[in-house]
Specification:
This protein has 157 residues and is of the alpha+beta class. It contains five helices and five strands. The protein has helices spanning 3-11, 47-53, 98-108, 110-124, 131-152, and strands at residues 15-21, 35-41, 59-62, 70-75, 81-89. The chain has a five-stranded mixed sheet, with helices on both faces. Helix 4 runs antiparallel to helix 5. The chain starts with a helix and ends in a 5-residue tail after the last helix.
Length: 157
């Protein structure tokens, strides 16, 4: 059973949207084998509520500096990291979130998929000390694509 179905069974009518995001959501894009999921809910509860709901499914809460969302990471019994579950409140601007605009733009523009893959492959060779350094190195490309995506949707920068 896929994670979407598992989450639907657990959260039911609380769910307003489930979206596959991140590099694994874009065909032919180089990616770590970790699936990122946005679970948009009608109302965001405290972490203990979600810990209780996800109990027994090998999800662990991850502390982040992101506000107004909870992040849970899923692991197999062999401690292999497989998923990131971002639980956040749904609102009318949900589908204008950067992660979704970026994903959708790449899906529609395969030439940027190849450019992004090349960039990621070059950056991986630099042996960064932290994931944050690696992520920061992709920022300029991501900002450029986000500007194109927002302009294409008629959104103000």
């Amino acid at each position: 059973m896929g994670q979407s179905k598992v989450l639907e069974d657990i959260f039911g009518k609380e769910i307003k949207a489930i979206e596959h995001i991140g590099s694994t959501s874009v065909p032919k894009l180089s990616a770590k084998p970790i699936i990122d999921i946005f679970l948009a809910v009608s109302s965001l509860h405290n972490v203990s509520y979600y810990n209780d709901k996800l109990q027994g499914l090998n999800y662990r809460y991850s502390i982040t500096d992101m506000s107004n969302r909870h992040l849970f990471s899923k692991y197999t019994a062999a401690e292999v990291w497989t998923h990131n579950l971002h639980i956040l409140p749904y609102d009318k601007n949900f589908y204008l979130r950067n992660e979704l605009l970026f994903r959708d733009y790449l899906r529609k523009n395969p030439e940027f998929v190849s450019k992004y893959t090349s960039l990621k492959e070059q950056l991986v060779l630099k042996n960064y000390n932290t994931i944050e350094e690696y992520t920061k190195s992709k920022s300029e490309f991501i900002r450029f694509v986000m500007e194109l995506a927002r302009t294409g949707k008629g959104l103000v920068k």
